[in-house]
Design brief:
three-stranded antiparallel β-sheet; 66 residues; 68% strand
């Protein structure tokens, strides 16, 4: 889940936009399967390597338009 928030300020000669966003707000374990390590030919059991993805990731910034 992500949490985006933004605010724009308008001026005579431009616009200033501020934003804040938090990815993985609830700190869930997100896994991706990286590769197949081996396959047992007798049982057809697959051994996989997995890798964790994003931790809580806050982002903030601004955009100045003129």
């Amino acid at each position: 889940m992500e949490f985006p928030c933004s605010k724009a300020f308008y001026f005579k000669r431009g616009k200033l936009s501020l934003y804040v966003e938090v990815l993985n707000l609830f700190n869930r374990e997100n896994w991706r399967f990286d590769r197949v390590n081996s396959v047992n030919a007798a049982t057809l059991k697959v051994s996989l390597t997995r890798d964790s993805l994003l931790p809580i990731l806050p982002t903030a910034g601004f955009v100045l338009e003129f």
